[in-house]
Amino acid sequence: MKKRIWIGIGAVFAAILAWAGYQQFMAKPRSISALIPADALLIFDSQALQAPVSARAIRTQMPLRKVPVFQEAVQSLERFFYTAADTATARTFLAKKIVRYSLHPISKTQLGFVFYIPIDQNSDQAFIEKIRHPDPAKYRMLARSFSDERIQELVSLTNQSYGTFFATEHFLIGSSSGVLVENVIRTLHKTLPRSEQNIQFRIDADHVAGLSIRPEVMQALFEQPEAKRSLVNLFLPEKLSLQFRQSASRTHLIGYAADDIGNRQDIANIFVDQTPVRMQSGDAIPQNTAVLYHLGLSNPTRFGQSMARVLGSTANESVQERIEKLEEDMPGFFNALGQDVILCRLESASNANRKIIILKAKDVKKLSTEFQNLAFLAGAKGPSTVKTFLQHKLLRVNVAELPASLFSNLFSGFPQSWITQHGNYLIIANGEDVMQDYLQQVDRKAVWANDPRQLGLLNQILRPANFTAFVRMNRSQTTLPVSWPITWRNLLGYSSASLNNLENMVYQASYGNEKVQSTLVLGRSTRQSGSNVLNRLLLRRRVEFNAPLIAAPVVSGNLADGSAQFYAQNNAGQFVLVTPEGDKIVQDTTDGAIRSNVVAADYLSNGHLQYLFMTARKLYIADPNPDARRVKLKGITLPAGIDPSLLLLPRGSRQSNLIALAAHKDGHVYALDRQKKAFIRLIKNPHPGPLLLPFQLIDEGNGMEILALQADGTLHRWHDDGAYVNHFPAKLTFDGVDKPFVSPVLQPAGSTMMQAVTTRGEVLDLHPNGLIAKRSQLYRPIRDGSFRLFPDAAQTNWLLLRTTDTETAILDQQGNLQLDIRGLKPGESSVRYHRLGTGIELISIKSGGFTDIYTLNQRKINDRPIPSDFPVVLQLDEQTGELYILSGISKAVQLFSIRIR
């Protein structure tokens, strides 16, 4: 009996001990990692993040608290503490504390942070009591219970919430979201806690932060909007735990990680026997690169064998078929390849997919020949097209996705390939216009090797690696929130977001047998300007003339670096060259004022660009020679009836002798023929009447098409040999209206749909066959206005324009008001739309003798009007944020600058 009693007592005692042990070791978390809900997208620790930063450091360095996500996190924390207590007290409490932050989804459209602050029950208790009892004249503290924990929420007297928090024995845990705080409490009280990943970061004087991030988040950073099958995620480790340091220049933060290879062994096998190498092609990478991928190869032959095995093992039958066709000749191609394989996505104002592949070669001629052989084996269609541009032979290889067949789907986006040789490089472009733009940049040395900022990034900050992914932030149509989920856009997309502080983001990886060595670089190469110099109009140069000017000045070169020449015409017909030093040199005479836009073309095939423009009777070719400070002018008489207001470059045309196109008053299209040195009629329009300008040229890959509309609604679409595209001409008719249009039909890049707007404000979306797909009526104010499409100078995009004699309203393509300007001078106003790269879009409005420049959100960027008798010329220095304005007045040309953010 006694034995049974003792057994019962022992069982009860064991149960008590087990319950106590469970409460001690299981029911309560054993580390801070166990507090964090499992859905965290990223987790980071920092002590430096809470420290204040000087204004000078913000302009010249890359402080941790100005980095995207880090800034949003610390703002969430400070919004609570700086409200609950005075700033000095809050900073004293946060000083030297290593705070952990985690980012979680709150809803389908919102992300939020949770912060975890270690506390000492003795030294920190007074501060905790202070925030629990805020100033009652300004704030209230609401309290409620949740799973036996006391949650408190700080609100204003108008019920604006500043944050929710609760305290455990060792941590103060808070968030701007009460939902997230409840999720932490659920994790805290789980009966069967999840297996915790005890994330430990090293935080000291050298390591400013530690970051653990999910690979799918990293993939989104470098994802291309048009390539949802991007292989970037395969180059990333399965988990990424980074330790951040400041770079030597303090302009970038560098995070280092060494993670297990995991399921990335296939990618590691591609780089077997490949020693990580530095990128050495800075002299071939253009400055307007928005996204770059680099494969560093120390053994290209071995790489080719590995890549062929990986691509051949895919389940995609079409890819397997392509690889089988190329397999026999691929070794010759890779034998001629050097160490750099670079894919550059160039910035695009029109959201066009503009890509360049730069292949450093051991033998560039052999590499080019081998590439053409592979194209033939892959089934290249039709005869190759050869053109000359800036003394480079451009060859069109008409086979789809050949680069992707050689280097993986990461290199997709090449429906055809244009190739040329440049030094030791084979250059591959996915369009003729892309190749020409690239060669122009190389010709004027606008490459990384000549840019001290990018060269420092290339030589000092980037490490040797097998794979590098580079994104230059805030480039037009590549700003990250455009391609991110709505939750990330809401987190980072507001006007004061830290995304504006970040310019360069780089991920690098090197692969071993067991580890992936990763580097994440965040920072900027450009020094930020102080707010006291923003938007101030500064006069840089003034050049006086003896006679009045008759047209706006013409610019060749770059106003930002001082290399630009510009030309002015006076009423004596003199064509005057103004050098960068301010010298005025009379070059020749013209037969009148310039009436057209100015286009640059390689008309003479002499390795330099010539500048073409029209007066009322002639087309002039200006061939500058900067070394001799001379410009040769050659005039070609225009055929009778040519409209001298518009010149277009025929990019994509199958006729290599065509240089520029112009419209005729009878609706025909004329072309300047290089061989005949005269205008020829390219398109005969059977429907008499002028075309609405600008008509549009569309590169269809296998040739150029011409899209044009006439005022009566006749819609034309021709091939460049003069034949109509199927279903054209089409007729857009409106009962009782003879001429419903005053502006053209335009088709955006990458779309087959077209858009037009009638003078009465009816927007038409058109199918590729010219039939109307959708009609929508724009709002018309009481004082009626005329509507038109309003393209930028390069026809990369358009807005909608509503005008009266004294008012101008700019609308987006959906009809939403962007800018409304009133009080213009009747008959003395001019409106122009400028897309300057880096996402900057401006409207210049000349009224009378002055010009103002506006953003599309109604903000005027010049602090005083710009004197101008003609429309101004704008150029942007992307590195410094300096906007240059060239303006002509009666007897002077003036160069102004404005520093913009």
UniProtKB/TrEMBL annotation:
InterPro entries named in the record: Quino_amine_DH_bsu
Record protein name field: Uncharacterized protein
